[in-house]
Amino acid sequence: MRGSGFRLASLNRLADTKSSAAKGTTLLHYLVQVIEKKFKDLLKLEDDIPHVRGASKVSLGEMDKDIQMLRTGLADVAREIEFHRSSGPAQQGDRFLPVMREFHTQASVRFAELEDKFQDMKTRFDRAVRLFGEDGSVLQPDEFFGIFDSFLGAFAEARHDNESFRRRQEEEEEEKRAKQEAELKKRTIDRKNKTGLMSSVARNLGLKSSSPTNGGDSPAKGGGGDNKGEFDDLISALRTGDVFGEDMAKFKRSRKARVLNGGSGAGGAAGNTSPPRHGSLQREESGRERERDRERDRERTVRRQ
């Protein structure tokens, strides 16, 4: 670091700083997220420096060698021309000297232009390196531009990773929502099926509410207690799953006893052929039998659990 700036090599260390909270996330991924939200113009960085990738493949040392080789070659051509000129008059039809003189003249002009451009390139490169706080005599063009080339590649890869992560998150959220909706739908259907089953069984067996508001007998009059017991037996059968087994047989027996009790009471009132407390004793016996049946149900439920 230099003051409030940073060395160029630090750019490629952003991808090495990994997050401890999110696996696979680096400081470069976070930087890309910030740029995408607040500095979208920076996403065009590669368009602003399109020649960086090509420049990163240029070696200044190799270019120096090539320039020196061309300079030596032109000098050799000049010596060869001078040797043939001083050797005496050329033979008739020998065009070596005219052709080589023309070639040497044109090549020398083009080489001079090349040398000027080469020197201008080195001057501009040194200025660019110093603008970034680096030393042009130490940092070569392939190293300098290679830093930008590597950073642009890592930057593009981080953008691709962030996009893939966003798509994966959206797919997971969509899958989670679909699973929740399916679970809610299943619960709703199960609840409706359970309610419909209870209503259907009660309707088929002729079970009626004993609420006084509906005109039925209250528990104090002797009918409500029996109906409540029958409803409890029905609920027990539904919960244990024994809808068509012993629980329902017991439910039918209790209803039959209640009907017989009601008929016996009516006959006593008409003809006085039964004792006054006969119906009451039967109801008490029926109640005790239901209590014993419920106790057996509870024991059976405990054993199943």
UniProtKB/TrEMBL annotation:
GO terms for biological process: positive regulation of actin filament polymerization. SUPFAM superfamilies: Formin homology 2 domain (FH2 domain). Residues 225-256 form the DAD domain. Residues 165-233, 252-305 are annotated as: Disordered. It comes from Drosophila guanche (Fruit fly). Residues 1-181 form the FH2 domain. Residues 165-193, 281-305 have a biased composition (Basic and acidic residues). Residues 196-214 have a biased composition (Polar residues). InterPro entries: DAD_dom, FH2_Formin, FH2_Formin_sf, Formin_Homology. This is Blast:Disheveled-associated activator of morphogenesis 2.
